[in-house]
Structure formats: C-alpha cells, structure tokens
Specification:
There is one protein chain. The longest helix has 18 residues, at 161-178. Helix 4 crosses helix 5 (131-143), helix 5 runs parallel beside helix 6 (161-178) and helix 7 packs across helix 8 (224-236). The chain has a 6-stranded mixed sheet, with helices on both faces. The protein has a 3-stranded antiparallel sheet with strand order 2-1-4, with helices on one face. A hairpin with a 2-residue loop joins strand 8 (198-203) and strand 9 (206-212). 35% of the residues lie in helices and 23% in strands. The chain is of the alpha/beta class. The chain is globular, with a radius of gyration of 18 Å. The structure holds adenosine-5'-triphosphate and magnesium ion. Adenosine-5'-triphosphate binds next to helix 2.
C-alpha cells in the first residue's frame, strides 16, 4: 500500500543538485527540479542560458553532469528537436518505426502517422515533406514509443507562424490523449503560456521562476488573463514591454 502510494506521488523526473560545466564555466548550477507525471511544462530562457543542456541532461544524453544530477527519469523517453532528424534514405513509416519495440509496430506507426495528420504519406521520402509535415512525422516517431516523458527542444522554432499555431493545437491534443510528462524548451513566451500548465525560466544556471498557468484549455494568445503571466515571464527574462 505504502509502495503504491509512493508510486502515485513520485514525480516522473527528479533532478537534484544538477550541475554542468564546460571547461571552467558553470552552465547549470545545482538545479533541483521535480516534473510530476503527466504535467506539461515549458522551459524558457535566453539563448545560451542552458536550456538544451538541461534537456539533454534530463534525457540522460549528457555524461558530463556532476553530482547526483538526475535522480530518476522514466524508462520510455522520446526527444524531438528543432529539425525533424528524419533519415533521408528511409521512407516516412520506416523513420517513424525507428526504435519502436514490441508487436504490431507497423500498425502502431500507421496509427501514429494518422494521429498527426499524415495518413497516406507512409511511403513518402522525408525530402518530399514540408517543414511542418516533417515535424509532424518526428512527433509520430516520438509517440510510437508511447513515451512517459516527451522532451522537445524548440520543435516549432523553424516553422512559419501559421504552421506553428496548428502544431500547438496538435501537440496539446496529443498530450491530452497520451498524457506523457512534457518538457518543452522554447524561446517564445506566448508558446509557453498557451501550451503549458507550468513555465520555468532558466537564469544564471538556476530555475529563476517557476510559474503555474492556471487557465483552462484551449487557450488563445489574446486571452486577457494570460497577459499577467506574459508580463511576469517577460520581467523574469529581463524584457519590458513599454517601448
Ligand atoms: N558541448 C559543449 N561544449 C562547450 N560549451 C557548450 C557545449 N554545449 C553547450 N555549451 C555552452 O553552454 C551554454 C548553454 O548552451 P545551451 O545550448 O544549453 O543553450 P540554450 O539555452 O539551449 O541556447 P539556445 O536558446 O540558443 O538554443 C552555451 O554558452 C554553450 O556555449
Ligand atoms: Mg538550445
């Protein structure tokens, strides 16, 4: 019973004193962070503040982390990057199935492609996809592994404004259906407040602000209440809106 209760309250990810230095420069300086199971969290910070470094550490991809660092993280973790990283010599479905395990993988791959709106494109080559379609294929590849934790490093950073908004809706819908813990790295304050239920600001190697966005979904950029959150986040990033 006690073990069961502990399972329920145990966060998906726990970082403790996570420190990362490159040569003598400390980029992450003793970060303590819990990500509850199923929470959608965004991570903001200036360019060079260490967002990608933190994401890589959470993914377990960085072997240069000092101290205890990552105390635990789930077994099934998927990572999505700014570029889709599809292998150009493999068809879309084969790309989606890379790293997928278990039975019925082809079926699951087709279902994941359908979920991201790429039904019928299974046999296309990555070079035949638009930027937004390639990112959707990357999301399908992430989903097919049924991740408990989805890490995304500026996944929409290279897309045009309209495609970005469509991708926001898609990502949120996928999250609602599958409920992984999400850590979404972004430069974009509006993207963070429209999508996430918690927004972190990375500053001087620490979490400088940890803000809960307590508003129902779907959210619109123009929603007045979101303005208060936007101002707090911009202030934490050192940006003032009165110019
Ligand atoms: N492998 C590495 N070797 C040396 N320095 C590194 C390495 N990786 C990252 N850094 C340094 O760590 C700092 C943080 O880099 P990181 O890529 O995490 O920033 P970021 O917040 O993701 O920035 P951006 O928003 O531009 O993507 C930078 O100053 C970068 O130069
Ligand atoms: Mg980065």
């Amino acid at each position: 019973m006690a073990a069961h209760a502990q399972q329920l309250t145990r966060p998906a990810v726990r970082l403790h004193g996570l420190t990362r230095s490159f040569r003598s420069r400390t980029v992450l300086d003793g970060i303590d962070l819990d990500l509850p199971a199923g929470q959608f969290t965004a991570l903001l910070g200036h360019s060079g503040s260490g967002k990608s470094t933190l994401l890589r550490a959470v993914a377990g991809l960085d072997h240069g982390v000092e101290g205890a660092g990552r105390l635990w993280a789930p077994e099934r973790v998927s990572v999505v990057f700014q570029d889709s990283r599809l292998l150009p010599w493999r068809r879309v479905l084969d790309n989606v199935l890379l790293g997928a395990e278990g039975g019925d993988t082809a079926e699951r791959g087709r279902a994941a492609l359908a979920e991201v709106g790429l039904e019928g494109r299974e046999r296309a080559w990555p070079g035949e996809l638009s930027g937004g379609e390639a990112q959707r294929a990357a999301l399908a590849r992430a989903l097919v592994r049924e991740p408990q934790l989805l890490l995304a490093d500026e996944p929409f950073g290279a897309l045009d404004a309209l495609t970005r908004i469509r991708m926001h809706t898609l990502l949120r819908e996928l999250w609602e259906r599958h409920r992984p813990s999400v850590l979404l790295v972004t430069h974009d304050v509006d993207e963070a407040i429209v999508l996430a239920d918690r927004v972190l600001v990375l500053e001087n190697g620490r979490i400088g602000l940890d803000l809960t966005i307590d508003r129902p979904h779907p959210r619109s950029y123009r929603e007045p209440k979101l303005g208060e959150y936007r101002e707090r986040l911009l202030a934490a990033l050192g940006v003032t809106e009165d110019h």
